[in-house]
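Please fill in the sequence for the structure shown.

STRUCTURE ENCODING:
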């Protein structure tokens, strides 16, 4: 048995143990997670189905749009998968404790890199399944296609996921080996800005060959780039459509082309990983930085925060330094919010500001939903486990001359300040680029701020109620019962806050609601927003403070 087979066998035993642990989980937790996953996929299915019905109402042009829409869909998913796998590969290949352990054994570097490449691809591609399944099911349902359509979609999706994962792993290997260590952040920002600028110039300067392409590109911005003939996402879209339409020779040719490129990417990952892994790993782990560093991180901030009490200032500085010293934390937040900022800044390039009022209104509320979803995700990832990450040193806080309620309030205010600043800034940018009215602009910012406060308070309070000081892994804390409840309640709170305003404004701009009822609906929605925000902010913090006060240290 070679080393790679031994690693697969190890994962097989781990899956068996995981199945046994899953059987010991509370039945309520299992049902809750399955119901939430089913509801989310059902919601995506309905959303995609409604979109296909909308396209079918456009008449003969719907067929041309749908064929290109598949290419745009796979282009978006592939881009996100490459970025996600880049971060995941960096973590699994270079920052994993398992990698350090395996380097001490008789494991060939080629097999180690291959194993970690497949592992990172599997870890980063689960969201792909949650989108491609409802999308393909909605299209098959709308077009009354058979089971074979699902088979063709799966046949093309598997090599496409591996190809995108391989590109992400290659980027991670290249960045760790050759990118300057102290300029990774700025290098990534410059590269992203150049790519965005190049895409914008491409959209403006490229001359479209025919009137049909021009019209379709105006309806779906970015369609021309996604339909590039040499792009893998275009092979997937055209291959699925060809096999569905009975063009088996063309579909098989496109699948073989995709498979051949996927195998080439896999060979490149093996070759580059074997050639550069040792040098990259030693450069990352063992290399010393000869630059003169300050003995204390954010030393000047201590003077700036002199208006705060001594205990509060100490806890704020400690939390900020802990966050900044962990690149895996601030890099994730930077990637999520940076992508949203780049997307909002490109609204003028896509001419979204020239859309009718109905569409701009819809885009505003979709932007609130996207920002709020990221806020919920990051609050569950960083805010919820922050008390549990104090670990065995939490007794220091327990014996400190300050109350537990004061500690909890400090952590909440610091996290809320960060979340509110980011959400308000992103929504200000989005509404300014869309050129909406002042009323809708204030509403969007206010709803985003209210959701940020509520979600942060919920994560802080439940994090104190379900605190686990014995678990050093934040992922294990998040995946527990408390983390699951927090995420589900956060998403439910977001939808309960957003939907009343979204429905009221949508019905008004479409003429279903008179001006008098529109004003009355906004008043009721505002009262509901203030009441819900007040309850979801104070009650979780009170429960968390009471739980901490009852603990013994």
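FILLED IN BY: designer on duty
SEQUENCE:
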């Amino acid at each position: 048995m070679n080393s790679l087979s031994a690693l697969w066998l190890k994962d097989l035993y781990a899956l068996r143990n995981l199945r046994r642990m899953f059987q010991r989980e509370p039945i309520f937790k299992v049902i809750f997670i399955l119901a939430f996953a089913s509801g989310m996929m059902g919601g995506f299915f309905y959303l995609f189905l409604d979109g296909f019905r909308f396209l079918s109402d456009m008449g003969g042009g719907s067929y041309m749009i749908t064929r290109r829409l598949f290419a745009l869909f796979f282009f978006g998913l592939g881009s996100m998968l490459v970025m996600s796998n880049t971060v995941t590969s960096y973590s699994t290949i270079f920052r994993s404790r398992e990698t350090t352990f395996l380097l001490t054994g008789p494991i060939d570097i080629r097999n180690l890199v291959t194993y970690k490449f497949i592992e990172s691809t599997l870890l980063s591609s689960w969201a792909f399944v949650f989108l491609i399944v409802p999308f393909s099911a909605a299209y098959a349902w709308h077009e009354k296609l058979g089971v074979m359509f699902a088979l063709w979609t799966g046949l093309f999706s598997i090599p496409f996921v591996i190809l995108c994962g391989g590109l992400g792993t290659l980027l991670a290997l290249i960045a760790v080996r050759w990118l300057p260590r102290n300029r990774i952040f700025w290098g990534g920002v410059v590269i992203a800005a150049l790519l965005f600028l190049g895409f914008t110039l491409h959209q403006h300067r490229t001359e479209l060959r025919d009137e049909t392409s021009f019209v379709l590109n105006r309806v779906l911005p970015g369609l021309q780039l996604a339909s590039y003939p040499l792009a893998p996402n275009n092979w997937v879209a055209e291959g699925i459509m060809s096999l569905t339409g009975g063009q088996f020779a063309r579909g098989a040719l496109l699948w073989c082309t995709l498979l051949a490129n996927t195998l080439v990417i896999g060979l490149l990952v093996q070759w580059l990983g074997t050639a550069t892994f040792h040098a990259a790993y030693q450069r990352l782990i063992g290399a010393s930085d000869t630059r003169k560093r300050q003995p204390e991180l954010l030393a000047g901030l201590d003077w700036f925060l002199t208006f705060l009490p001594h205990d509060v200032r100490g806890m704020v500085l400690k939390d900020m330094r802990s966050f900044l010293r962990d690149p895996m934390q601030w890099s994730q937040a930077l990637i999520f919010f940076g992508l949203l900022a780049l997307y909002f800044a490109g609204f003028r390039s896509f001419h979204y500001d020239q859309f009718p009022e109905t569409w701009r209104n819809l885009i505003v509320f979709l932007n609130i939903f996207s920002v709020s979803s990221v806020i919920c995700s990051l609050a569950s990832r960083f805010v919820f486990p922050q008390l549990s990450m104090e670990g065995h040193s939490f007794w220091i806080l327990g014996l400190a001359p300050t109350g537990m309620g004061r500690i909890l309030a400090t952590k909440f205010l610091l996290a809320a300040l960060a979340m509110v600043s980011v959400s308000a800034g992103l929504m200000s940018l989005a509404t300014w680029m869309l050129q909406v009215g002042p009323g809708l602009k204030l509403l969007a910012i206010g709803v985003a701020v209210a959701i940020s406060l509520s979600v942060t308070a919920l994560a802080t309070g439940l994090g104190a109620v379900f605190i686990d000081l014995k678990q050093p892994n934040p992922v294990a804390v998040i995946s527990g019962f408390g983390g699951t409840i927090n995420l589900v309640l956060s998403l439910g709170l977001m939808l309960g806050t957003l939907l009343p305003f979204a429905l009221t404004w949508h019905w008004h701009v479409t003429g279903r609601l008179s001006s008098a009822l529109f004003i009355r609906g906004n008043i009721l929605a505002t009262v509901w927003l203030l009441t819900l925000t007040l309850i979801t902010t104070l009650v979780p913090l009170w429960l968390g403070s009471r739980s901490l006060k009852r603990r013994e240290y």
